[in-house]
Design brief:
With about 40 residues, this protein is mostly helical. It has 1 helix and no strands. This is Sporulation protein YqfD.
């Protein structure tokens, strides 16, 4: 079997956060050191 070395992937995604308390999602991102930018209220 061929051994495949792990690769680091980078990139970005666009998401829509819905619900009664979307700020909790962003707080979890901060807690896990996930960068968030260009936040828009829709």
């Amino acid at each position: 079997m061929k051994h495949v070395q792990a690769t680091l992937l980078t990139g970005y995604v666009t998401i829509a956060v819905k619900g009664s308390m979307p700020e909790l999602f962003f707080q979890r991102c901060v807690d896990h050191k996930i960068p968030v930018w260009n936040v828009k209220k829709g």
